[in-house]
């Protein structure tokens, strides 16, 4: 199977490496989703930073896309909890290549990591590890999928290579496209194998944003208006309920009323999907609402 079929999507002399203060950034969210920081949970939104010891959380049918300092991408599937435990980046001068060191933890759910073209072209390097329940994946520059839950840990390689480390046992090297390793709870470990084409497509889909399903992007031009209320306190209460449920609602004063809305939705379909989801949850108290372009 060709490597290209498995993938979804200048260095120069410079001064000594300098410490960078860059963080991981949320680029897109398929609602609802949250970021947990210092014991507090808040609705996730594009442009937010995911700091060391923050946990990203997605709900059922939700997704999140993160960008690391070296421009590599992390995609999180539904019902996922993911934490950055350490993150440090160094760059050679102003425009030289960067080196990123990071320890990541997949607490539960689905994870995909990919080094994009710009990162490769810039000569960026990385030393990253992903801790799962029973194993740690060593990442040097690649594209792979993994998942962990109460029943098993699994890793599938799309491009490059990864080393799967387990306790004191010999590492398992996955270095061919489609190479697949899984260990199930209370069962003997089996040798790595090859995922079927159907399994590969399933793995890829599990972490991909689904257009029209409530996707937020930086600069998204659509919004969901949950309500237009005459009382500021009622608007604040609704905003709190929505934010607690994983929707980054805001309030805008409008001709003596208060509009509670969710901005930055990618398309009209995404805005409509969010509105229907809000109305379907009686605990939120959204009974009508509308969708609109940002200029409206």
Automatic annotation (TrEMBL):
It comes from the Bacteria. Residues 216-293 form the SPOR domain. This is SPOR domain-containing protein. Keywords: Signal. Coiled coil: none annotated. PROSITE patterns: SPOR. Residues 1-19 form the signal peptide.
